[in-house]
Write a structure and sequence with these properties.
- The protein starts with a helix and ends in a 7-residue tail after the last helix.
- It contains 3 helices and 7 strands.
- The strands form 2 sheets. It has a 5-stranded antiparallel β-sheet with strand order 1-2-6-3-7.
- It has one domain.
Length: 194
């Protein structure tokens, strides 16, 4: 009975941990950073002067670098058009790549006190060449049976750019210059909103 209670409590704890971690199963949609959405991330901007903005987009662990950069360009194009300009130039840009590695013990695995071993404790003998017979018994902590761990790598991207908005026809030979209408037409259909 105690073993089944332990299993139920372990499963309940895992469920609560998943809910507490945000339960995000989607990439960050195109939304303001301070949105009330349950999915983290989004865009933000700071006006520097009449022609300059600093624009940022932060993604969650499911948002690719390409999507973060596309949403940044789209927001820059939106700001350009909203302020009555035709094109923008990226004067400076940064991409921040955060990597987090987590090693967590498997909550359903415990060879010592598992509910599956309540009335039976395993004992094995095995032969190692040139060393003879060895035994494994969970109370002696033999490395033959190591505790299982779940290894995860979590990546997040955040892009920011300083833009200068301009009027007129965009120069075609500068790779840092983008026509705002062209950007919204190309990226707009791919935008995922909350």
């Amino acid at each position: 009975m105690a073993g089944s209670n332990r299993l139920i409590l372990t499963m309940l704890a895992c469920g609560l941990a998943i809910l507490a971690s945000g339960c995000s199963t989607r990439a960050t949609p195109y939304q303001p950073l301070h949105s009330s959405s349950a999915i983290s991330g989004g865009y933000s901007e700071t006006r520097i002067d009449e022609e300059h903005f600093r624009v940022s987009f932060a993604g969650n662990r499911l948002t690719s670098r390409e999507q973060v950069e596309s949403y940044l360009l789209y927001r820059a194009a939106e700001l350009t058009l909203l302020n009555g300009f035709d094109y923008f130039e990226i004067e400076d840009r940064e991409i921040e790549h955060q990597i987090e590695r987590q090693a967590r013990r498997d909550p359903l695995y415990d060879p010592w006190y598992s509910p599956y071993h309540r009335s039976w404790r395993p004992y094995w003998r095995y032969y190692r060449q040139d060393h003879g017979w060895y035994h494994w018994y969970p109370y002696f902590g033999d490395p033959f049976w190591a505790t299982r761990y779940d290894m995860r790598t979590i990546e997040r991207f955040e892009a920011s750019a300083d833009i200068r908005m301009c009027c007129g026809v965009a120069p075609e030979d500068d790779p840092r210059v983008f026509d705002a209408r062209e950007v919204t037409e190309k990226i707009g259909p791919k935008i995922e909103r909350p």
